[in-house]
What we know:
Mean pLDDT: 92
Helix content: 10-25%
Strand content: 35-45%
Shape: globular
Number of domains: 1
CATH superfamily: Nucleoside Triphosphate Pyrophosphohydrolase
Oligomer: single chain
Radius of gyration: 18 Å
Structural class: alpha+beta
Order of helices and strands: EEEEEEEHEEEHEH
CATH topology: Nucleoside Triphosphate Pyrophosphohydrolase
Distance between the termini: 44 Å
Number of strands: 11
Amino acid sequence: MGEPRTIAPNAPLECLHAGRHLRLVQRGGWEWVERIRGSGVVAIVALTPKAKLILVEQFRAPVGCRVIELPAGISGDIQGQESEGLIVAAKRELLEETGYVAKRWQELTAGPSSAGLTNEVVTFFLASDLTRQGAGGGDASEDIEVHQVPLAGIDAWLRERQNAGRLVDPKVFAGLYFLSSRGQ
């Protein structure tokens, strides 16, 4: 093992490649991915009054299969709404993806999604006192299936989905941790 590399935070940032949504950048020999538009990422731990966790399932091209996830999205990625706040984005994404709105919101934590790959920081919110106001399913570019999973049987449900070839985003387990630490 070599010596840890120290990268000066003021070293020049070089763009190695830019696509429509992402760019690969480098600073001091360290490469990572950044979003071109967006100011943050939100993940929503959405809990119904009947103790059901709302999860979404959709095909994710990078892993080549359907993935079980918390409702989530990007803040500030819509043209004309670049300064959109995280809580505003969380409310928008919950309704868009699941059809639910929440009366109560609480910020839980924030942290890097993959600190060695991207500068993206995910902010988790707890959404409770949910009511259904729409069908959900995402916007025109998405094909999202909405699941209402009773907390009492969620471990078995997740295992069944994995056995059926689905991947489970680890943020789901983080969301379950937050619920269990609050006595949910």
